[in-house]
Write a structure and sequence with these properties.
The chain is α+β, with helices and mostly antiparallel strands and 178 residues long. It has one domain: Nucleic acid-binding proteins (OB fold (Dihydrolipoamide Acetyltransferase, E2P), Beta Barrel). The protein has four helices and five strands. A five-stranded mixed beta barrel has the order 1-2-3-5-4. It starts with a helix and ends in a 17-residue tail after the last helix. This is DUF5666 domain-containing protein. Keywords: Signal.
């Protein structure tokens, strides 16, 4: 597959939704450190509460899985993922989770599964013991992920080698479900 085709495939996504199961999607994703397919950091950041121009729904309340590098750890319960430069928008994505799930460090490649929500510091700070409000100002009014699961088993090398886990039928990365 040529580089131009990979770039194009990274921008074109299709999503299948089922109420009780996660379905795979069918497009390559350059905005993911793990090489999985489907929603990426930018899809969640759209904040449009609907479908973006890639066809991925990242509406508030939907469940998504994204993978990216941890850009900064903000507190024991929150961190930000690197944005993607592929679309000219490299804004970080906020992730909040239970303390035992947020055991990450800057530079870790992680896969995050959780619910897309709209961020308001006053609404979320007490439940997730968020640190100083000033650290979260850039996320105010944007979408973020309340993580149900955070795993550090994402390996960029595996994705370059074409591991069998990347097939469109079994990809975990951007499987928006309801």
């Amino acid at each position: 597959m040529g580089i131009d085709r990979l770039k194009y495939a990274g921008r074109t996504l299709s999503v299948a939704l089922l109420a009780s199961s996660v379905l795979a999607v069918s497009a390559c994703q350059n905005g993911s450190v793990g090489g999985e397919e489907g929603a990426d950091v930018e899809d969640v950041q759209e904040g449009e509460n609907g479908e973006d121009d890639t066809g991925v729904e990242a509406e508030t309340g939907s469940t998504v899985t994204v993978s990216a590098e941890v850009e900064e750890v903000l507190s024991d319960e929150s961190f930000q993922l690197e944005g993607s430069n592929d679309w000219g928008d490299d804004e970080p994505l906020l992730v909040v989770s239970a303390p035992e799930d947020a055991d990450v460090s800057e530079g870790d490649a992680v896969s995050v599964t959780g619910t897309v929500r709209d961020f308001d510091y006053a609404t979320w700070s007490e439940d997730y013991e968020l640190s100083d409000e000033a650290r979260y100002e850039e996320f105010d009014g944007r979408q973020f992920i309340v993580a149900d699961e955070v795993s550090q088993d994402v390996s960029p090398e595996e994705s370059l080698e074409g591991s069998p886990e990347e097939s469109p039928e079994s990809s975990p990365e951007a499987s928006p479900t309801e």
